[in-house]
Structure to design on (338 residues):
């Protein structure tokens, strides 16, 4: 499968995401420059974490006007898979590809720590490699991750099982303490109604190798691969077997901001 | 033409920054401060447009870009013309 990682000025998890997709998950991966209109025929677009456009105005507010986002919107409307991680999630909210908005974290602190999240809906393109109720250990790093939606929208999200991941303690309990940023209903990851666009604040690309303390993030990437292989009829790979090509040097980023 | 646009969180949205400022003011002894809401100010200079055109585009700009209508509201005024 072919993955595209979008690079905005200020993205800083683009190389990590590229590395995990290519070298850990063994997938063909390309960078997608924010000024381009070409998605290069990818099967899945990833909006990585970082501080696109310096987080000016509001996190993600300027990135949504990038040329590449015009194509990402078309791609999503046609059913293409889009994953937004951290700042990528904020961009998806600002672009209207996901409902709701982000507020500053409840204690007004930038949070950079490992958290636990619970899979509440394993029947999605982004969570099918996990089990319902499974607890994942994945780090967060953000200032604005306090998810907000009005009561009506929140009820709708619950009803449609659009809340895929929730902050929890290590046993999977939803506690006030475990909900570190104050998100409504402990929302850590959210999918759109059509099921092809997911945003999550935790960084799966920072938890996909044992040396980093957790490999739980691979569940998200493996789910996408499972879904795409099923959709294209490529046949499911044996569980747990991941092709590891020799580590290839990452392509240099070409272009001017 | 100078325009000032004020963006702030909706009343229904919790404003932890405003609360922190309020608490700091209480610490300083300003106990009459009942509530603080924090916001953003934009000063925009327009040229080549008349008043009626400005009155049309200012709320558009605020709604599309300057404010996130899900969590924020805005007011605006024309400062000089």
């Amino acid at each position: 499968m072919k993955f595209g990682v979008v690079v905005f000025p200020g993205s800083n998890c683009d190389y990590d995401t590229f590395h995990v997709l290519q070298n850990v998950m063994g997938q063909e991966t390309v960078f997608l420059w924010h000024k381009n209109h070409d998605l290069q025929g990818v099967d899945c677009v990833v909006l990585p974490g970082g501080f696109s456009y310096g987080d000016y105005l509001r996190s993600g507010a300027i990135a949504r006007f990038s040329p590449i986002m015009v194509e990402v919107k078309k791609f999503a409307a046609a059913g293409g898979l889009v994953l937004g991680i951290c700042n990528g999630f904020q961009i998806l909210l600002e672009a209207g590809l996901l409902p709701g908005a982000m507020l500053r974290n409840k204690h007004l602190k930038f949070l950079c720590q490992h958290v636990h999240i619970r899979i509440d809906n394993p029947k999605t393109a982004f969570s099918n490699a996990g089990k319902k109720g499974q607890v994942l250990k994945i780090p967060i790093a953000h200032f604005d991750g306090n998810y907000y939606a009005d009561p009506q929208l929140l009820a709708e999200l619950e009803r449609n099982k659009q809340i895929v991941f929730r902050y929890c303690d290590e046993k999977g309990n939803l506690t006030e303490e475990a909900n570190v940023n104050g998100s409504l209903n402990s929302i850590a990851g959210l999918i759109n109604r059509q099921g092809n666009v997911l945003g999550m604040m935790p960084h799966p690309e920072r938890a996909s190798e044992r040396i980093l303390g957790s490999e739980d993030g691979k569940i998200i990437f493996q789910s996408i691969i499972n879904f795409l292989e099923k959709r294209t009829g490529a046949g499911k790979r044996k569980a747990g077997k991941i092709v590891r090509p020799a580590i290839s040097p990452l392509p240099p980023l070409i272009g001017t901001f | 033409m100078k325009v000032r646009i004020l963006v702030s969180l909706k009343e229904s949205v919790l404003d932890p920054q405003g609360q922190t400022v309020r608490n700091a003011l209480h610490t300083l002894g300003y106990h009459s401060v009942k509530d603080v809401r924090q916001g953003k100010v934009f000063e925009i200079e327009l040229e080549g447009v008349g008043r009626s055109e400005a009155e049309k585009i200012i709320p558009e700009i605020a709604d599309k870009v300057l404010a996130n209508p899900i969590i924020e509201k805005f007011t605006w005024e024309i400062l000089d013309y």
